[in-house]
Amino acid sequence: MTQTILITGASSGIGAGLAREYARRGDRLALVARRLDLLETLRAELRALGAEVTVHQGDVTRDGEVARVVDDLASRGLGLNVVYANAGFGVAGNVQKLSIDDYQRQFDTNVFGVLRTVKETVPALRARGGQLVLVGSVAGHAASAGMSAYSMSKFAVRALAETLHGDLAPEGIRVTLVSPGFVDSDIRRTNNQGVVQTEAKDPIPAWLRVSTEKAAREIVRGVDRGKAEIVVTGHGKVIVFIARHFPGLLRWAGLRVYKGRPEPSKGVTTPRFGG
Annotated catalytic residue: which of 22, 103, 150, 258? Predict the structure, then answer.
């Protein structure tokens, strides 16, 4: 049966990888992101695979942007089967160097953007007994020096997912948390203002990163199985295991690998434990 899948933050990285994976399966896609040019390019690619795709320029930090997409689907007699609250970026820097505005900007997208996506799609998911997927990070299990804003936001996403299991189960909606490690994406080329620095190189070595295609396959497989949490990448699984069972060891290691972070207005972010 053809499903309708809504993905925020779909223009690149994990979001685009998920779109490609569902397109290969023949599912219907509603893709949301701020960068319309990238969405249009992705739509052409997915339509070449035979997928039915609509793209919507939208910002999850604004009320009603995702609801508008849901309304567009409903106007064509379409509901929702799976929603990915995937949009996000990372703010890096020492606590003393980051401003309150930096933290606010981080939470506006990574926490309140996810919450808006949840609240604006739950009615449609309820009608279909659908599934809600929140994309967190390994950094939501293991915080590291220089990544307070990002880790705080991803810990909040994990807490939201845990809460939603109980809140939405009576309504027939399943909830899955995705916790990626290092995945090929723009997140580490995005500065603290949320702007992608296209000329910047990914500071994480290629051997430690997982392709978006491989990550997407693992995520979709776990979502199909209704898993409560999907930890992506081998190193991510190791870090989550250590965080749960040996948190002191992780703190000790974190102090020894931290080498500082760029000023909030400069450089790019480097989530230590997440993609």
Answer: 150
> With 0-12 CB in 10 A as exposed, 13-18 as middle and 19+ as buried, what is 236?
buried
Q: Cα torsion at 108, 53, 121, 179 (round to 10°)? A: -60
Task: Give 117-121's long-range contacts (Cβ < 8 A, gap of 24+).
Answer: 117/8, 117/60, 117/66, 117/83, 117/85, 117/87, 118/85, 118/160, 118/164, 120/64, 120/66, 120/67, 120/70, 121/6, 121/66, 121/70, 121/80, 121/83
Cβ count within 10 A of residue 113: 26
**Ranges of each domain in the chain:** 4-257
The CATH homologous superfamily for domain 4-257 is NAD(P)-binding Rossmann-like Domain (3.40.50.720)
CA 220 to chain centre: 13
Alpha carbon 101 to its chain's center: 21
- In the residue annotation, 22 being an active-site residue is answered as no
Confidence of residue 4 (pLDDT cuts 50, 70, 90): very high
Contacts of 260 (CB under 8 A, 6+ apart): 94, 146
Task: Report the 10 Å Cβ neighbour count for 123.
Answer: 14
Burial status of residue 165 (CB atoms within 10 A of its CB: 0-12, 13-18, 19 or more): middle
Q: Are 139 and 154 in contact (CB under 8 A)?
A: yes
What's the pLDDT tens digit per position in 6-62? Answer: 999 999 999 999 999 999 999 999 999 999 999 999 999 999 999 999 999 999 999
Task: Return d(Cα 93, Cα 79) in angstroms, integer.
Answer: 41
